[in-house]
Specification:
The complex is a heterodimer of chains A (745) and B (129).
Chain A: H1 3-34, H2 39-59, H3 62-79, H4 87-110, H5 118-128, E1 165-173, H6 180-194, E2 196-201, H7 204-208, E3 216-222, H8 226-234, E4 239-246, H9 247-253, H10 259-269, H11 292-296, H12 300-313, H13 332-336, H14 342-373, H15 376-403, E5 405-407, H16 409-412, H17 415-426, E6 429-435, E7 440-442, H18 443-464, H19 468-473, E8 479-489, E9 492-499, H20 506-515, H21 521-526, H22 529-534, H23 539-542, H24 545-551, H25 557-566, E10 570-576, E11 580-588, E12 593-601, E13 604-609, E14 613-620, E15 625-627, E16 630-635, E17 638-644, H26 645-649, E18 662-670, E19 673-679, E20 681-689, H27 694-697, E21 703-708, E22 714-718, H28 720-744
Parallel strand pairs in A: 6-8, 13-22, 17-19
Antiparallel strand pairs in A: 1-3, 1-4, 2-3, 5-7, 8-9, 9-11, 10-11, 12-13, 12-20, 14-18, 15-16, 16-17, 18-19, 21-22
Chain B: E1 6-10, H1 14-26, E2 30-34, H2 37-47, E3 51-55, H3 63-73, E4 79-83, H4 88-97, E5 101-104, H5 109-123
Helix pairs in contact in B: 2-3, 3-4
Classes of the chains: A alpha+beta (745), B alpha/beta (129).
Amino acid sequence: MSFEEIDKEELMIFLEEMDELLQVLEEDMLKLEKEPRNPSLVAEIFRAAHTIKGSAATVGFPNLSKLAHAMEAVFSEVRSGKLAVTASLVDTFFHCLDTVRAIKQEIVGAGRDEADIGPNLKMLAKLTAPDTVEEPLPETERPEPEAKPAAAPPPPAPSAPSIFRFFRIKADVAPGCLMPFVRAYQALTFLSETGTLIESTPRISEIEAEEKSFPLEVVISTPAGSERIREIMQMVADVIVLDIVDVEEEEELDEPMPVEAAEEVVKAVAPPEPAPLPEPAPEVPAAQKPSPELSIVKELPVESIEIQAAEAGEEKADASVGFLEKPQESKDAQVRSIRVNVERVDAIMDLVGELVINRTRLTQLSRSLEVSLDSEETTDPFNETADSIELITAQLQEHIMKARLLPIENVFNKFPRTVRSLAKKYGKKIDLVVTGEQTELDRSVLEQIGDPLMHAVRNAVDHGIETVEERIRAGKPETGKIHLSASHIEDHVLITIEDDGKGIDSAKVLKRAVEMNLVTPDSASRMKESDLLSLVFAPGLSSKDEVTEVSGRGVGMDVVRANIEKLNGSVALESKPGRGAKLMIKLPLTLAIIKSLLVTFGKRIFAVPLVTVVQTLRIEREELQTVSGRETIMFRGGALPLLRVDNVYGLSRKPGEKEPGKVYIVVVSWSGRRVGLIVDSLIGDMDIVIRPLGEYIGEAPGISGAAILGDGNIALIVDVGGIIKMTTEEGDSRRALAAGESSRG
Amino acid sequence: MKHKEKILIVDDSLYHRSELKKLLLENGYKVFEAADAIDGIQMMRKIHPGLVIMDINMPIMEGVDAVKYMKKVDRNALIVMFSSLDDEKTVMEAIKAGARDYVTKPLDKIKMIETVERLLKSFSIGRNA
């Protein structure tokens, strides 16, 4: 690998990291707007800016580093309480984030970071200027009631030469705990899993007998540090850690822990009241109503241990410096994940696909071997091996599929910012509620749903939610609500976008549809409510601004549907006039494997994606009718245009192949249009692994890919959208021709 | 980071199962249900859930026995007891048998999700890689 390549890889990692950090910053800033005094948010923003500063300098982007430094400096002030979070601070930060993003784009495009950061630096400097006086933002959302100590670790004490250290842990139970004995028992079991219990008061037998529980005092010997012990204790609900002390250090000092430090610890978990020395453990009511002090000292407990350690160990004062800047280092979760280039995962996925095919062949082989050999001694071990390979392959496939899954939050987290700025632009008040953002989807699906979803969310903001005045007039709360959610339903993912806006006026949609000649007035009168709503997805309807004005929706909904259907998904819409609308998007977990109906034409096998299949019919050849040069049949009360696979793909029957007397028709639907495919026979449905055609033969119209079947045969995957488009264009011109003829005649 | 973990609910009450199922689905989990412990154990063998939520009082096999059995099947099984308020003794037994935590009935949604997330985060070593 040359130096240049190393640089490239480094740059890729840097850019990925930038994406994540920008996201963190953006989310946290939005949260901070609501909870301006949440210290963990402040700390996280500070850290993110700090990391950008460092990485940018390392990779060689001094301008970016400088901007990040200025941002960090502002938050350093906020963190130390010298600066309050104000509206202009938040706005300035969003501006800066935009600049950072622009610089990132510049780096991607041109490899430079020469954007002008002057204005941003000035704005940031203004924030810290002493003469600026602005009202701090009010706390709109109270912080969590629990005074959770941060997970930040104090660095290991350098004075402990032995791997095992002794800790004295004191803990109490939260008021209102329903089963204190269970909690005490859990605490002891958890602790004994990380070390050896030296002594405990009360004893484990007393707890088991339900005689005594809290306060609990335990001495353990463990290789873990105090922060790990704290983490472990926090896994037990309702338990409040009062104190964790390194016993040896305690003995060295030969006196109880310093008074100030003890008070610090107590203050951190309890309301500030003069606390007695920790012997006996003070009664600490925890998880009380959040008081401002509490929310501020939320992160303090660990810091206080720091102080305590520093005071006890004298020369360790330096150890606590800077710990706030890199506390994530101890988070195991981060250590347990690794970055892998997407291409590598894709390559493995492809290989697994090959393996799946061969596995199926092997299974078939083993079955036929069984029949032909008829000797159990030979075939049994062979079959067993084949079976176990089948099992392992299936598991391997599942795991690699999982590795490709990403939480949908990667897409969802764009929306809070969009909704915020759109709402501001239109003078609306909107709360965006996001749930199920951890729902996972294959990254190929994820990459492609961003735009349709953004479209739908914009629609909800733009046309769904009314202005404040309109809402007040309608007797609704002035803040509108958009609920974006994702969840797993069987092997699909359901994404819903629900708003409490004005809904869709179906009467007006219908009127417009009639005007646009999308439906006849006659059929319009017979339409059901659900069919009416599906008109919103009709292509011609959406492009008219007038319709969007009256219907509340419709901008490019046909585009949304087309995009989702391309992913083998489907969309549906519900609306309650005056009360809101709900768009539901159903997506497959992965694009790599699709459920398909296998059909034959002559000796060839085609795979029709099952989501597009409406019904299959078996008819006599004589039942086919020809209307204006095209074969049709009557289907559900209407004429269904038919397509012959051979015509579509320009195939011809091989000599000797005869046309069967009965034919099968696969009725497929795409974007609301239906056609029937004439095929010779149906094989059945099957999960197939899609192989792109592109690499070998280029784009083939009407074919979206190929799949290798268990017996080694190749099935071509029918691009239903493509063939319907091909035929309707052709059909339109024919119909125009036919219409012309009939008017003349 | 929370992933789409499989969670198995073992409870003979349809009401509790559906209440839990809804909550877990809303939070992005994959949910499986069993109406008794035997069914639950079989299902566990098949699907390897990331976490099991287990009722204490069930016909055929009690929750505590089910915990013991499940721990034999999978030493690392992560089990949360879902019990009524007055069950402290039984809950203690279940914890001794290897259950990791408990949540009391009636269902406190916030507490349940908090417990599930905390346990999955703390104990599902290797599962979230």
